[in-house]
Amino acid sequence: MVEIKNLKKAAQRILSAIKKNERIILYGDADLDGTTSVIILEEAIKNLKGEISAIYFPDREKENYGLTETGLNFLSPFAPALLICLDLGITNFKEVKLAREKGFKVIIIDHHEALKEIPEVLILVDPKQKTDKYPFKQLAACGVVYKLAQLMFKNKIPSALEQNFLELTALGTLADMMAEIDDNKIYIEKGLPLIISSFRPGLRVLLKLVRNNSNSEREMVSRIISILNISEIKNHLTESYLILNSSTEAEVQELTQEIFQKSFERSLKIKEIVGEVETCISQNSDPIIFEGDVDWTYLLLGAVASRICNKHKKPTFIFKIGEKESKGSVRAPKGINSVKMMEDCSHLLKMFGGHAAASGFTLANENLEKFKNCLLSNIEKYEKNNGKNNGKNNY
Ligand SMILES: [Mn+2]
């Protein structure tokens, strides 16, 4: 059977690091897919008697998405070490080079779109890289990490641990809105009841909070995901990591209440920004939506772009204008690949990447107008391709 390219190699390399007491660092994206990926691999390594030297999640609001210079500077004292990037890295060319210069051996485990070039790392796992023959391309990063854990345990994960992993894999797969087919369907079917009966104190506290207003298991889990998926960073860890990893209910009571409240405020704020965008575009018939503001909170813009795109069915670019740079979230309707659209204009961008339907970008403010024009001048090509896509889900 065809396996995901380099997955076995990654499993063997991590096992050898454990054996040789090499320092291991886990570096994950701050959303729920990245967080669950980190926890699965952390628990796998610890159960195989390995140690983790550091865990780091970049702050999307203050740093950037992906591997960041700030993150690498923070982790420098741990070098030389094996740096395992989870749910990010496939478009971090410069940062990967910096990591190597600092003495890290880099493994990337990602599921985002690969560009024409891929970064030079020790081992690169991404079902979407061109040379990968694995037929199923829609795994979340945590789904890839689950398969990695299976290989690390030679396909014999102790059953309690396997249940842990499945519960987390279901959470991350649902949070990333991956197509519910193939392996994803199995993870979700097996994982949902495990989440509901979870031993994790953090999940138990959350379940109590959402139980009253939710009818089905699925609804409860969706609410938990909406609370955990955008979490802030505390001491380089995501709040969702702290909640999912806590060892007593008392320990997370306060934090859980706090993020529950914040998720409510967030939904109000998202509505407000959606309203502002709607006003801006009401007189505009451009084939794309391209709006930014200095006052918007970057972390909320993914949710804003999703709603706008769902309603207007146009590629949607929503960004926060910072002092010198702007950072944005992109959503594209089915059949249009937002990463490819940006790749055509990549000379104007500092950073970009993600999935066909959901991605992000960073650029200097002086390039905003040029970027918009570049996207507009290429849009026909993407609209023409639309439809040839045989209805494939593109997350
Ligand atoms: Mn992901």
TrEMBL record:
InterPro entries: DDH_dom (IPR001667), DHH_sf (IPR038763), DHHA1_dom (IPR003156), SSDNA_exonuclease_RecJ (IPR051673)
UniProt GO MF annotations: exonuclease activity; nucleic acid binding
Record-annotated DDH domain positions: 23-173
DHHA1 domain boundaries: 293-375
Domain of life of the organism encoding this protein: Bacteria
Protein name as it appears in the record: Single-stranded-DNA-specific exonuclease RecJ
Organism: bacterium (Candidatus Gribaldobacteria) CG07_land_8_20_14_0_80_33_18
Taxonomic lineage: Bacteria, Candidatus Gribaldobacteria
